Amino acid sequence: MRYTLKQLAVFDSIANQGSVSAAAEYLSLTQSATSMSLSQLEKMLGKPLFERVGKRMVLTHWGHWLRPKAKGLLSDAQQIELGFAGQHLISGEIALGASQTAAHHLVPDLISKIDKDFPEVRLKVEVENTEHVIDGVLDHTYQLGVIEGRCDDSRLCQQTWCTDHLVIVAGPQHPYAQIDTISMGQLEQAQWVLREQGAGTRAIFDAAIHPHIDNLNVRHEYEQISILKTLVKQGPYLSCLPALDIARAVEREELVVLNTPELNMARRLSFIWRRESSDNPIRNCLLTEGRRLERVRNLNR
């Protein structure tokens, strides 16, 4: 094969940016040079890699097949270049998509550890719900994801980072706040504010509650946990939230954790990555440091 790393870089950038013009700007190339590189690669491979959908360039079946392999070659080339430049072998940038609880309570410690021990590594972090993180890993937006709950997609690898559990919370003035044990009938009569569909927290709550209650009175759904906590604290609502996210509010007596023994809402927060992706030293570093941080947290509990 006579394809070049430049052609693969152009292909990957168009896939990332969604257009030839945006890819050209990102790579500091002219639009004509970018178009020519793509055209030469497609001609050499004998398959179309993109199709136009409106103003966007969308990967074809062959483009999806090629992309992880191209990324692997480009990553290997970067490591060769950095190694011969005398830089640390673990260096460069990685895109990490994280669900809210992980982003707020786990990822900052991971960033601090990486900054200290691997100063040439840069983490680009975006906060999304679990469904969007999974989609982002599958479409190559993220090289690594952190999600809540299970992921059964066979295209992804999953490694547990830590365990957590969800709790039902009320405001201190809510009638249920003074009751020792809350029944399913009482939960069915309550007004709820919950995470949106697609959030890992919502999926775990739905799986736990629906065997007992068919229909809940869900008044509002929001992505932001801070909004849910404020609504519960100030209003007549219940919510289901991660224990990590409400611990301080409970200590300040702004929220009350209800005793609901019929609900088991243990969960795990996990790293995910594409199964077919090539070995990535930065990703492996993050997985190792994440495990070390969790061992330290367990010892300090």
From TrEMBL:
Q: Where is the HTH lysR-type domain?
A: 1-60
Family as reported in the entry's similarity comment: Belongs to the LysR transcriptional regulatory family.
InterPro entries reported in the protein's UniProt record: LysR_HTH_N (IPR000847), LysR_subst-bd (IPR005119), WH-like_DNA-bd_sf (IPR036388), WH_DNA-bd_sf (IPR036390)
Q: What keywords are annotated for this sequence in UniProt?
A: DNA-binding, Transcription, Transcription regulation
Q: Which organism is it from?
A: Ferrimonas pelagia
Task: Read off the PANTHER family from this record.
Answer: HTH-TYPE TRANSCRIPTIONAL REGULATOR, LYSR FAMILY TRANSCRIPTIONAL REGULATOR
Protein name, as recorded: LysR substrate-binding domain-containing protein
